[in-house]
Amino acid sequence: MTWLVTGGAGYIGSHVVRAFAADGIDVVVIDDLSSGKPEFLVEGVPFVEANLLDSAATRKALEGVSGVVHLAGYKYAGVSVEKPMHTYTQNISAMVSLLNEMAAAGVANIVFSSSAGVYGTPKDEVVTEQTAPDPQSPYGETKQVGEWLLADQAKAVPLNYTALRYFNVVGSGDPKVYDASPYNLFPIVCNLLTQGKIPQIYGTDHPTPDGTSIKDYVHVADLARAHVAAARALDSGKTLEPVYNLGSGTGTSVREIMDAARRVTGIDFTPTEGPRRPGDPSRVVASGELAARDLEWKNTHTVDEMFASAWEAWPKG
């Protein structure tokens, strides 16, 4: 049993590679290093440096594998509005290329990295897999199209698949691996505190207990283990649901994140406050019940543990 992890040099991908290795599953990585980092790669894991649009390289990476975890793609929702064609090329055209090469190689198992971005700004108090998708960025649209590609391809060729819709992935399961995104809350706070600057809360007038928006945060190591469970299920011939939400079912407010940052770092600060950002929902929390049932999914970390692991891994030099 060997699995190919696309985007395996990225923040999430490298954690997935580590989770597979810890479970005794051989892994191959393909990544063009456009956002992934060579230092995140696991020593001894075969690595192909290429974009999935390179069919020959993808074909080589698929040799001898029984399944694929597909994480590679352009992941910045806000910037995707400014770069829609780039986003579609990297997330849709590349996935079409991957699925074509998988079919040619007879690889019939795939776990797809989808996103809560398919839901847009949901009206449901708790998002479930039955919540209607309403993507509001090219990024979210590409993730929904990716799910469609899987369903359509499965009607044409043998293909066992599932899509995991991530919510806010945070923390670190290895002190050498950190979230370097300039758009995510945890790295923004870590970066500012490292520079001796004060983080800001955008919006304190939300209809929530403390006035700040509530989002669903999941630890990256817990997320990675869900991929292992999905891969093992598909490899054994089990039929999984087409999509699963990887959410905690509870949620954490921005102010609670700031409080955790203060406790964990020992830096006494009071966040500044600014107006809401356009389109920022007051509450997005997801049920992970289906994933708990089929993938033994569980968010095992407290907010302090999540931030502590992110802070430990954050480069401070």
From TrEMBL:
Pathway: Carbohydrate metabolism; galactose metabolism
Domain NAD-dependent epimerase/dehydratase: 3-247
Superkingdom of source: Bacteria
Gene Ontology BP terms: galactose catabolic process via UDP-galactose, Leloir pathway
EC number of the protein: 5.1.3.2
Record-level Gene Ontology MF annotations: UDP-glucose 4-epimerase activity
Entry keywords, A to Z: Carbohydrate metabolism, Isomerase, NAD
Gene3D superfamilies: NAD(P)-binding Rossmann-like Domain, UDP-galactose 4-epimerase, domain 1
Catalysed transformations (reactions): UDP-alpha-D-glucose = UDP-alpha-D-galactose
Names of required cofactors: NAD(+)
Family affiliation: Belongs to the NAD(P)-dependent epimerase/dehydratase family.
Protein name per Swiss-Prot or TrEMBL: UDP-glucose 4-epimerase
Organism of origin: Kribbella qitaiheensis
Taxonomic lineage of the native organism: Bacteria, Bacillati, Actinomycetota, Actinomycetes, Propionibacteriales
